Amino acid sequence: MSTLYLTGSSGGLGRVIRAHYLDRGWNVVGLDRHTDAFEHPNYAFFPFESFQEESVASAFAAGAAPFGAPRAVIATIGGIKPWAPVEEVDINDFEFVLNLNLLSAFLASKHAVRLMKPLGVGSIITVGAETALRPEPRKTSYVAAKAGVIAFTETLALETKEYGINANCIVPTVIHTKANEEWGAPEEIKRWTAPEDIASLCFHLTSDAGRAINGAIIRIPNQL
Predict the structure, then answer these.
(1) Domain ranges, residue 93
(2) Could you read off the pLDDT of 43-77 as tens digits, one per residue?
(3) How far apart are the C-alpha atoms of 156 and 150, rounded to whole Å?
(4) CATH, residue 182
C-alpha cells in the first residue's frame, strides 16, 4: 500500500487531498501545526513546525514508523500577510511569508528525498501561485515566495529524476476554501478552483500514470 506524506493536512486543501487518497486505498501521514481530530485506520497525524528543520525531520521520521517511507509528498502549507506597498512591508512579515511558503516546501522536499532515494521511486508536489507568474503590485512578499517555490521545484526535478523521483508544481489562481471565502466577493468565488480538482490532479501526478511528468509547472486558471 502506498503512503502519502501531506503537509498542511488540517487545512482546507489538505483535508480534501487527504480524503481523496484515503478513499483510493492509500495510507496518509498528516503533518500540520494543529490537528483537526480526524481519525481513520490508514491515517496518522504528527504535529510539526513546517519551517523548523528539526521539527520537520522528527515528524518525517515518526511518519515512517506506522506506514513506511512516502511514495508521495504533497506540500500544501502556505499563506499570506496583508497586501502593502514595498516601503511599508515589515521585515518580519516578509521573512514570515518566505518561511511559510518557500522554506516549508524546501524542508518537506529535502526530507522526502532522503526517504525516497533508497526506494528508487517517489513523487513530490509543491503549490505555487498564479501571481508569481503574473506579478501584481502590493504583493512583493507573496510573489517572491511563490516564485521561489516554482523555481525550487524545477531545480528539484532536475536533481532527483535519476533516482526515479519526479517533482512538479501546481499553480492555482485562487482555491475555493472556507478561509478564502472570508475575503472573496460572490462573483469571484464561483470562478475559483475547487480543491477536489487539485486533489485529482495530485493523484494523477503521484500515480504510476504520472511518473513521466517531471519538472512541470501546471497552471490552473480561474473559471471564466
Answers:
(1) 3-220
(2) 999 999 999 999 999 999 999 999 999 999 999 99
(3) 10
(4) 3.40.50.720
